[in-house]
Amino acid sequence: MEFRFRRKDGRYIYMEIRGVWLTNDEGEVYRTIGAMKDITEWKCTLEKVEASEMKYRSLIQNFYGINFETPKTLGLQLVSILVNQL
Fold first, then answer.
1. What are phi and psi of 75, to 5 degrees?
2. How far is CA 26 from the centre of its chain?
């Protein structure tokens, strides 16, 4: 499970929490074991990647014309999906 906590300085951090409940023969919980992991940096990086992907996806989807990339090998990498509408 993931949670967001607010620190005393006002910043937010993201934590991943995993754990298990240990039960006796009657099914009653007698102990919990778990760990918390700070995933703030990973979450911030993920948000930046998603924003970048959304930006470039919008650019390509709304571009009227021919758009392509060619790497050093000169193989065609990307052609706009709107080419058929030209």
1. -85, 140
2. 41
Whole-angstrom distance, CA of residue 45 vs CA of residue 52:
11
In whole angstroms, give the CA distance from residue 78 to residue 43: 29
Three-state secondary structure along 19-71? Answer: EEEEECCCCCEEEEEEEEEECHHHHHHHHHHHHHHHHHHHHHHCCCCCCEECC
What is the per-residue pLDDT across 6-28, written as a single tens digit (0 to 9) for each? 999 999 999 999 999 999 999 99
**Residue 3 CB contacts under 8 Å (≥ 6 apart), including other chains:** 14, 15, 17
pLDDT per residue over 52-81, tens digit each? 888 888 877 776 666 566 666 665 555 555
